[in-house]
Amino acid sequence: PLTVATSEKARIGPTDVGVNVYPFGSLPTVSKTNGGLLAGMGFLVGTLVTQAYGPSLYVTVDATATRTVRVTVPLYKRLMVALTVLVVVSAIQIRGVTLVAAMLVVPVAAATLVARSFNIIRLAILAAEFVTIAGVTVADIYGIAAGGLIVLAAIGVYATVLVRRKLTAVSLVQRLPTRSRQPANHSDRQLKTDGG
């Protein structure tokens, strides 16, 4: 209900700050200082991820095997957590709690339904980009808040993938060959061999 209600509201202007700013954020209310801080944090996170990509990937895949090649696993785990916190806190200030939480969970959940292993990451990124572009485009066309539409689009993608997976599973079960059943009248000899 909150998502739909907020999506139907008009965009929040630079001086209008209301309750809708907190769940979905408002780009016009971001100061130049916060924008500069976000850009600096983006540069820092990008640089650290680039420098620590290999060991971080190994720690993510198999921490035990990574320890055997003398990589400091706790250090890279802490680095990944710290970078995640920096990105989430920065994004919450601009885009809001609901949108950030939805974009962290829903695209990954949708990708998990159709992929395994590292393909989940690729599909989650594609899904997140798709729903973001779709939400912002529709919001711009109709002049409504983008945050709520992005969340609705993400939920719509997840629901579509889930329904399609369920329908595919039902279809596959219906195609399975059924065993031929024995006739209903059993002789006494068959019952005795069955233990009945």
Which labels suit this protein?
single chain, 196 residues, mainly alpha, 10 helices, 76% helix, flat, disordered N terminus
Descriptive report:
This protein is 76% helix and 0% strand. By secondary structure, the chain is mainly α. Helix 1 (2-8) packs across helix 9 (146-175), helix 3 (32-51) packs antiparallel against helix 6 and helix 7 runs parallel beside helix 9. The radius of gyration is 25 Å and the shape is flat.
SSE topology:
Elements: H1 2-8, H2 21-24, H3 32-51, H4 53-61, H5 63-68, H6 73-95, H7 97-114, H8 119-142, H9 146-175, H10 188-194
Helix pairs in contact: 1-9, 3-6, 4-6, 6-7, 7-8, 7-9, 8-9
- Would you count the extended β strands for me? 0
Estimate what percentage of residues fall within beta strands: under 5%
Overall structural class, as computed from helix and strand content, comes to mainly alpha
Question: How many strands, what sense, and barrel or not for the largest sheet?
Answer: none
Task: Compute the separation of the termini in Å.
Answer: 59 Å
C-alpha geometry? flat
**Overall pLDDT, averaged?**
79
- Put simply, the count of helices is 10
Low-confidence stretches: 1-15
Helix fraction bin? over 70%
